[in-house]
Amino acid sequence: MSNQATKGVSIGAGDSDDDEFGRIPSAADVQKTNTVEIMPNQFGYDDSDEEEETKDMGTDYDPPTRTYGIEEYTMSDATMKLFERELGQTSQLRQESKAPAKMMQTFSGQTTETTTETLTVGVEVQINTNKQEKEERKGRKHKKDKKWHDKKVKREDDWATGTNRKIDPNYILEIKQNQEFETYYREANILPAEEFDKFYQILKEPLDICFRINSVDKHFEKTQQEIEDLVQKMKGIDELKDKYPKKLLWYPNNLAYTFNECSRGEMRANPLLKNFHQFLILETEMGRIFRQEAVSMIPVTLLNIEPHHSVIDVCAAPGSKTIQILEQLHQAHEKIPKGFVIANDTDQKRAYLLTHQARRLNSSALFITNNDARFLPYLKIDEHNNNMKFDRILCDVPCSGDGTLRKNLALWKNFNSHLGHSCHPLQLHILERAFQHLKKGGRLVYSTCSFNPIENEAVVAAALSRHIKQMELVDVSKEVSPHLKYRPGLVNWRVYHRGKGKREGPAWYETYDKVPNYKRKVIKETMFTDTYTMFNNETDRPDDMKSDPLNLRRCLRLFPHDNNQGGFFVAVFTKVLDEHEGFIYDDMYQMNAWDDPRVKQKPILDDIREFAEEFEKDLKIHEEKNNVPQELSQQNQILSIVKDAQDQQKQAMKDSGIVFGKMSQIYDNKEHLFPFEKLLETKQDLWVNLQLFYGINAEFPCENLYFQKDTTNCIAFVSEGLSQLMKCQRKHKLKVVNLGVKLFSKNRDIKSPGKYRLLQEGLELLMPYMNDERKIQVSKLLLAQFLDKINFTFEELRNMGHSQFEGKEPGSAVITSGDLYVTIWIGVNNVSLMIGKEEIKSFKFLLINQ
Ligand SMILES: C[S@@+](CC[C@H](N)C(=O)[O-])C[C@H]1O[C@@H](n2cnc3c(N)ncnc32)[C@H](O)[C@@H]1O
């Protein structure tokens, strides 16, 4: 039988028409089921449903994937193990068992690595494109060189990711040189001169693997025990020396580990190491552990999130920190927390990748959006148009990423001292916009994986100096564990220009007025310390504040040689005054966001206009409150700048002949609409039918169910806090990627009421409210058999002594054994599992370890 048939039958997700959430087997498929052969070397199952479901609301999902050629235990082995241990029926089953098989497994993941790699590539592309254009103009493009270069970088990347083991490590050490990096950071005085060599040296050493146990997973204590058992075994082996996972002592509740991995050769030679590596891969796939660089775990730990908080992660993809935030929201192990997190990213593909990652948590408190964080629209909290303010905000902004050099070989080649300069305006703009969204008394964490003061303290200082009465840096020294070494933020820095060709060498600038005009495209005023030194003039400041008027020393600098980790920068802010209570900006809003040609696109200018209108509204209230005389009023200044920019843009449009759609048209586009409606408001009948069909009792909080307006393809459940936000949804101009946990998905071929099938990810929420109508108790053995074979005819089941599936209305149902439950499809004369390959593997594992 072809794979095609297997695909149609097993879960039927492949050819989805316009159903974005996958489809269930049609009647024709179900007929085919009887003749399906399960291939001995597969799970008899095509995981296209995985892809199908990650498409979510609208666009195709295309996450980067990696292939690991690892040897896997086979279904038959696993089932066998279970039988051996639990049932003692080995001899008979051995005869029946299929030949053990090998499989290739593909998974996308390794969150932190993806973050920085992709990010760097992004920056690289930008820089290279410019450079390339110039070269083309000058007729100096060396195609051959480029080919050679690309090949070399690929080889190096392969080496770094372990794909190519042939490259000599000495050659890699040669590559790990960057004169500009060395010069820039030596002279930037980011740390005492005598420490520089140690700092530079450790950057050339590979980074330890770090991972975190998913504290939301109900089996997390078991996972922790498994790791501890493995560690004990590894400790007892002399050859391993210190190569075993060690607890990250500063991470709360002992849930994070660091592991000094060795070369693949060494790993092969030692089965325990190899086993552990495979254990890591498997556990990551199952969502029980998350791999994340240690320093990247710090920002969320300093957000102090509580389950009732409203949180926004403005630059969230690929989502390692969003997942940490969700863990904090679920810390009380409530399935439905009061609070929620909006995970936003401007890159649509990455936002979909985030959806994929976060599926491991199945949280009703997650809302994924795809907006530019610089112009994040205000969300309305009530019908009086009051703006929603967040308890917690994370700004893990795009950056040059030089703190990740230990795991990012390509950056050794691509680093240049102007990467940070190009990130600074974007970072500042994102941070300032985030300030506007923070609740009074709330907390905001700004972070980068860069050492560069231009991306760190300079951004913090510029943003703070414009919100001096409103925002403060928090002293978190007492909140950070003594096991984590960090350095205080810098108070002084200079701004570098690497020069221009042979004519002009590099130069450092201490004040903006010394920067020649032609360099001001790269060097901005906000990068200098003198943007804030005016506060030194305030006589009532204590002496120690005079040298550090903005408390920049309260920032945290993480250096790789301090903790044997990567580099990071973290600043924690709180809002002490609301916009209405104090100055919004001490100075006129200087940042010329619209300097950036990309910003000159019409849709973005429209967004800015909306932002400016909101800003002017706040300013008006402030000026009225403070009796600011009309001649000193700053109202309309921004709006008039935006209007000018819009006029210029119109002219540019006319000149170029490019026509942009109107914003209203853009929002009319399905993808940009805020697309959800409350189920009970318009589709009460549907809910009543679902309740009857699935035996869901009246206790279920059905007022938190939402569906996608245009298609009704999918019904999602959201937490209380998100539901509150949905009430005012018509006022929101958010581009939505995903919302809450999906409980039901529509199948058009099947007649109501079984038209909506249950989705595995929503089961945990729904199960406590379902009676036994569509919830079928099975033995461990039968569940294991289902996991092995996926599909049984009624006749086969009858011969095995199970007739409980017969006589039921065809449609979706659940089989449950102990605390495990799996979605199935009851056909006319057969029953099939409705879960993906990865989930099957995960259930098999859980079953064995139950
Ligand atoms: C450092 S990464 C974030 C990593 C993420 N916080 C995590 O822990 O997985 C920065 C992200 O910012 C996004 N980004 C860049 N410019 C943005 C903007 N203007 N608005 C929102 N997101 C932006 C990038 O697409 C990238 O995913």
From TrEMBL:
InterPro entries (alphabetical): MeTrfase_RsmB-F_NOP2_cat, MeTrfase_RsmB-F_NOP2_dom, Pre-PUA_NSUN2, RCMT, RCMT_NCL1, RsmB/NOL1/NOP2-like_CS, SAM-dependent_MTases_sf
Biased composition (Basic residues): 139-152
Residue runs in coiled coils: 213-240
Binding site for S-adenosyl-L-methionine: C315, A316, A317, P318, G319, S320, K321, D345, D372, D396
Localization terms from the record: Nucleus
One Pfam family linked to the record: Pre-PUA_NSUN2
GO cellular component, as recorded: nucleus
Keywords carried by this UniProt record: Coiled coil, Methyltransferase, Nucleus, RNA-binding, S-adenosyl-L-methionine, Transferase, tRNA processing, tRNA-binding
Name of the protein this chain belongs to: Trna (Cytosine-c)-methyltransferase
Annotated Gene3D superfamilies: Vaccinia Virus protein VP39
Residues in SAM-dependent MTase RsmB/NOP-type domain copies: 199-576
Homology family: Belongs to the class I-like SAM-binding methyltransferase superfamily. RsmB/NOP family.
Predominant location category: nucleus
Region annotation (Disordered) ranges: 1-68, 129-155
List of catalytic residues: C449 (nucleophile)
Key word Nucleus present: yes
Membrane found in the keyword field: no
GO biological process: tRNA methylation
GO molecular function: tRNA (cytidine-5-)-methyltransferase activity; tRNA binding
SUPFAM superfamilies: S-adenosyl-L-methionine-dependent methyltransferases
